[in-house]
Structure formats: C-alpha cells, structure tokens
Amino acid sequence: VHGHAIYNNALYYQRVGRNIVVKYHFETGISKALFIENSWYYERMYLFSTSKSYFSIAVDENGLWVMYLSRPDEHIMVAEVDEETFSVLRHINTTYPQSKAGNAFVAGGVLYITDKNHMHVAFAFDLLREKQLDARFELKLSLSLEGFEQKVSPGSNATLV
C-alpha cells in the first residue's frame, strides 16, 4: 500500500489526521489540498489491516487514483483524480469489503485486490468501465506490468494459476 505517489513532478500524500490529499509541486513549491468526502481517516479504520494508511495513491497510464475506505459501509472506494485541476472526476464504489482485503494496486485501469494473506488476487475491478472482472489468480513470486501490451503478467520464475 502506498500512502503517497510522485507523478508529473508532484508529490501526492494524505495529510495526517485529515481526509485530504495534498499535491506538492516540486518546481513551484505550491501545495494544493483535495478533500475526499465520506472517507475514513481516523479511529484506526485503515484502508488495509496490514498498513497504517487511510488512503492509497496509485498512478497508471490512465492517471491518478486514490483508494480509500468509505463511511459508513466500509467498502473500498476509488477516486479518479484529474491531476491538472486537482479535482475528483468521480468516486467509484467497488463494493468490495475492506474486511477481506490485504492490499491493492492499479494497473491498466484495473484495481487488483489481494486476499488478507497476499497469496491471491481475490478481486479485480475495471475502473474505466466501473464493473467487476473475473480475474482471480495466485501470486507465486511477483507480478509485472506489461505496459505496451497493457496486461499484468507473472514476474520472472512465476506462474499464474
């Protein structure tokens, strides 16, 4: 889980104790704040039980994504963020319960969520089409993103089951 990301010469991170993502632009030194509504950001309601982060910030070829835990239903939500205007384009409810999630990452516009043991991708959700995908596979070693082919594949000496 990554509570921060660097994208297009800016650092994105969650402001401690707030449901705000900050964009700090390295060249200008200017900071901007983005409010993420209806998100848990206190009372140790972390996005994933194995981390101490309330938000996870991801970047792929489609842009900037902020994963967070929704209040009050505790589903994993994703905010698609326009990095130029630094505004939320839309909030996407994956309907996946936080209680089942171990970790997550975004690649090719798809959110992949692992089980609590980090042994399987238990859930995949197409963020661009806002629909669940059938993509359950075991993690043997590592995964790599094949950028040109826009697919997730096993890393060296790994297999997908």
TrEMBL record:
The UniProt keywords, alphabetically, are:
Secreted
Q: Name one GO cellular component term.
A: cell surface
Compartment(s) of residence:
Secreted
Q: Name one GO biological process term.
A: signal transduction
User: Which residue ranges does UniProt annotate as crossing the membrane?
Assistant: none
Domain Olfactomedin-like, residue spans:
1-161
Report if keyword Glycoprotein is assigned: no
SMART domains reported for this sequence: OLF
What positions belong to coiled-coil segments?
none
Note the PROSITE patterns from the entry: OLF (PS51132)
Name of the featured protein: Olfactomedin-like domain-containing protein
Origin organism is Micrurus lemniscatus lemniscatus
